[in-house]
Amino acid sequence: MRILLHYDGEFERPGWDVVTCSEQDEARFAGLLPDAEVIWHVLRPLTGADFDRAPKLRLVQKLGTGVNTIDLDAAEERGVAVANMPGRNAQAVAETALLLMLAALRKVVAFDAHTRAGRGWPADPALTGGEIAGRTVGLLGGGEIATLLRGMLTAIGATVLYTSRTPRPDDPAWRPLDDLLRASDIVSVHIPLTDETHHLLDRDRLALLRPGAVVVNTARGAVIDERALVDALDSGHLAGAGLDVFEQEPVAPGNPLLKREDVVVMPHVAWLTHETWDRYFEVAMENVRRLESGADLLHRVR
Q: Residue 31: which domain range?
């Protein structure tokens, strides 16, 4: 079965017919689509036009959780199954969220620039950072990533609160969204992008955060209104942000967030570890075996 790994990655297993294609190489991708029976998909959006060029396609396997980059209706209309793999990147994403919190609090971007310019010591007193211990961290989401991160933060000495779509009033750590924001020194996003969560953290909700708060996002960029985030940083209400995701991806070089020393950025790679790839391929290979045998797919979305 011909499998198209749509990413700058490698996959070598005896007996597996896998071709790879960079997400930036549109010409090669178009040339490979007609023979593809399975696409192992990462981030570059898959559209109805892509499905039209792939008459043999039977399965789109998301390497990750979020399927907002796949035209699910177009896939269903053409009889193409879609599956994801929830939780397989949870450890990596939770660790990255913690990394971004620490980097924003300790002003790593500014210190890095100062050090490379020969001004790193003695340090600028204005760049004195803070610690996670003793702060309140609010997590948007109550899934596996948020649960893992909650344990890490508690071990460091933070007070951890969370909110979720399903109210959990019996859990003393659960709060309604606005109450959580009012109580938080750091807020970290761990929810999918839907019509309801688009710009969930808008100008009004960012204003609810405590003065000097830090915002971290390793989920989906459009959960945060980027213009409102820039304004909150400009005003000094927020002290910093750590962002692995953006409203437009790949992020445009002119995005004002990229020019700020109070913002730590990464290119949607919170999940990207050797260990995550191993877990991804384990599920992806199993679903190809199930597709060939006619068995039910793991984590089928459509």
A: 2-88+273-293
